[in-house]
Amino acid sequence: MSSPYVECISECFIKPKHPIEESKQICYLAPADIARLSLHYIQKGLLFINPVSNNQKTFIQNLLDNLKQSLSLALVHFYPLFARLVTRKTEDPPTYVVFVDCSSNSPGAGFIYATLDMTVSDILSPIDTPSIVQSLFDHHKAVNHDGHTMPLLSIQVTELLDGVFIGCSMNHSIGDGTSYWNFFNTWSEIFQSQGNVHDHDIPISHQPIHNRWFPESCNPLINLPFKHHDEFISRFEAPKLRERMFHFTVESIAKLKAKANKECNSNTTIVSSFQSLSAFIWRSITRARCLSHDQATSCILTINNRTRMQPPVAQDYFGNLIQRVSGKSTAGELLEHDLGWAAMKMHVAVANHNNIVVQNYFNEWLQLDEEFISATSVSNSLC
């Protein structure tokens, strides 16, 4: 018996509903954007059970039409997502600049309709995440530099036997997780408002801010010290791994937080739920790895810089303003101490991340050290 596979039924490109004056300008990539050219696209999806319907074919067609229409309206606000990356090179003087071309020459955002002969239960029931889930996204394994030829945004709607999966792939050089969910939530908001008001009058809760943030005295046209992208773009082929999703209840997280704060024995510091959970997972994975006592290990978190900068940057900023912070220890020290000790490590890493740290990072990046442009993972780290 053959294994189920995702079959592509149709593919098209979606452009903004109407022309946008701002899109005629070049959208420059800031340092935090360029630093992600070797990373993979952000890929998230939503799984729905089909509503009761007498005509499944009509339901799917109406869904696809409404998704395309609302996406076209959402792109009016998030216009960089229908564009492509462009590299401009000159020899005299030598320049190498990557930016976003939002001109009308771009084909648009990708939109795919596919089918899969599996049920919602087939996706959710297995202990390990089925490998077929990777095929529910259009840009699996693509790196952000591929946005020169691939859509910066691609939507794949996969019809299951009793449900629908909507997979969204967004180029990480265009925006971070906050930007991603601002787009996705706006698209959802427009989708749900269709039919209630005129297309041009659909209000959105959060208008994206497209003016890219650059460090002081930084030229928006950042000249990279390369002649070809092979000099700074790397592709990582992960070994075949088992993937599993873990769910923590509200009650269990509350217990972890209470335990961590009690063990911290601090009257002034409150360790957060996320720091407590991160510490718990860090210790659990380190124990399972059976690392040597003196082996260095770390727990890496991605942190939103918007509120930590002076002056703060609005949450509606569309782009990348994130950094990595980490708690560090040896395997032996981490396991010899309790949960509260590890949680405090994570708390201090987050608390110490302020405007000075952010500014220093970007000032170092502007020295164009290749290590900053081609970011790599850290061994024995939990990300």
What does this structure look like?
With 383 residues, the protein is an alpha+beta fold. The chain has two domains: 7-231, 2-Layer Sandwich (Chloramphenicol Acetyltransferase), CATH 3.30.559; 250-382, Chloramphenicol Acetyltransferase. The chain has helices at residues 31-34, 56-77, 120-124, 177-193, 250-264, 273-289, 331-336, 339-351, 355-365, 370-373, and strands at residues 7-14, 27-28, 42-49, 84-91, 94-101, 109-115, 153-159, 163-170, 296-304, 322-330, 381-382. The chain has a five-stranded mixed β-sheet with strand order 1-6-7-8-3. Helix 5 (250-264) packs across helix 8 (339-351). The chain starts with 6 loop residues before the first strand and ends with a strand.
Secondary structure topology:
Layout: E1 7-14, E2 27-28, H1 31-34, E3 42-49, H2 56-77, E4 84-91, E5 94-101, E6 109-115, H3 120-124, E7 153-159, E8 163-170, H4 177-193, H5 250-264, H6 273-289, E9 296-304, E10 322-330, H7 331-336, H8 339-351, H9 355-365, H10 370-373, E11 381-382
Parallel strand pairs: 6-7, 9-11
Antiparallel strand pairs: 1-6, 2-5, 3-8, 4-5, 7-8, 9-10
